[in-house]
Every structure is written in structure tokens, then in C-alpha cells.
Automatic annotation (TrEMBL):
Region span, Disordered: 106-190
Name listed for the protein in its UniProt record: DUF3027 domain-containing protein
Taxonomy, superkingdom: Bacteria
Skewed-composition ranges (Acidic residues): 109-132, 144-190
Length: 190
């Protein structure tokens, strides 16, 4: 003997949604997807799942009521719908690779169009800042449009040359002192 489902339980969507909002975000809950009649007067209300990573799964809220009282929630859970646990149809590698290349070509074409649009929208006065007709390439080390790679390095070289010369004169003086000490030592030995 089959019992008739309780229409009050079937209509308890607000109660079921409130229970689901206690365990998940509002945007993870989709439209109602029907209901299932369970044993002992329990109705499971089903809702579409919108969480990424769970395609084909449903939110399930089991509700019941005892002897004419208000409906109450027994359980909330995420369950797989028919076919949710089956792997998608196999696609040969050559087909997947061709699809990938086609998508890359579309993406590249879109980027080229975007680059052309941004070049057309650029201000022509901005090229006047550079002495070489706007072909200067700036990088993170450039300051206020000055290419640090083109700075005059002669000052640095002069300083380093002076350091090298002073190092040489210091080492020459040390060598002369050492020679003088050697000569004094030889004189003492005689």
C-alpha cells in the first residue's frame, strides 16, 4: 500500500532553503529540482547545486512532520544526480589537441585586436617625450622616462680607474718597503 505524499512537506521549500543556507552560501543553491518520497512519511526536497567542481550534483533536504505538527528538517546533504559520477565521454588526444590549438588561435587573434585597439587609442603626444621617436623601451629600473641603461658611465669608470691607480700605487709602495727590508736584512747578515 502506497501512502500519499504530504503536500505540506512538498511545499516546505522555504524551510529547506533556510536549512541549506546554514551550511552553504546562497549562490551555491539553485532552482528546485523536485522531490523524492522516502519511507515513513519523509520527503526529500531537491535543489540545483551551483558550486564549481560538483556538476550534476543536487542539494537534498529531508523533511518530515509528526501528527500534524509543523514540518522539521531531518538532514541536509549534497548528493550526486543520475550520471554525475560517470566520467565524461572519452575524446581522443588528437581531437583535444586540435580544439586546444583552435582556442589558442582565437585567443591570439582577440589579443591582437585588443593590441591594435589600444595602439589606435594611444595619445600621439606621448611619442614626443623621447628623442629617438618613441622607440625607447622602458623597464622597471627607468625613472621618469629616463632609460638608466643609457646613462653616461664615464664618471663611474673614472672613479674606478682612480681606485685602481691608487691600489697600484699602494701596492708599489708596499713592494718598495718589502725590498728595503730585504736589503736591510742582507746588510745585517754580512
Amino acid at each position: 500500500m502506497t501512502s500519499t505524499p504530504d503536500s505540506t512537506l512538498i511545499a516546505a521549500h522555504d524551510l529547506a532553503l533556510a536549512a541549506l543556507k546554514e551550511i552553504t552560501a546562497d549562490d551555491a543553491i539553485g532552482a528546485p529540482q523536485g522531490h523524492r518520497v522516502e519511507a515513513d512519511g519523509v520527503i526529500t526536497l531537491l535543489f540545483q547545486n551551483r558550486m564549481r567542481g560538483y556538476p550534476g550534483w543536487l542539494w537534498a533536504v529531508s523533511v518530515t512532520r509528526v501528527d500534524g505538527s509543523e514540518p522539521t528538517v531531518l538532514e541536509t546533504e549534497l548528493i550526486p544526480d543520475d550520471g554525475a559520477l560517470l566520467a565524461p565521454e572519452w575524446v581522443p588526444w588528437a581531437v583535444r589537441l586540435a580544439d586546444y590549438h583552435a582556442q589558442q588561435a582565437v585567443t591570439s587573434a582577440d589579443e591582437d585586436l585588443d593590441d591594435q585597439d589600444s595602439d589606435d587609442d594611444s595619445d600621439d603626444d606621448s611619442d614626443d617625450e623621447f628623442d629617438d621617436g618613441g622607440s625607447a623601451i622602458l623597464h622597471s629600473g627607468d625613472v621618469d622616462g629616463v632609460d638608466i641603461d643609457e646613462l653616461d658611465d664615464s664618471d663611474e669608470l673614472d672613479d674606478s680607474d682612480e681606485l685602481d691607480e691608487s691600489d697600484d700605487s699602494d701596492s708599489d709602495a708596499e713592494a718598495e718597503d718589502a725590498d728595503a727590508e730585504d736589503a736591510d736584512a742582507e746588510d745585517d747578515d754580512r
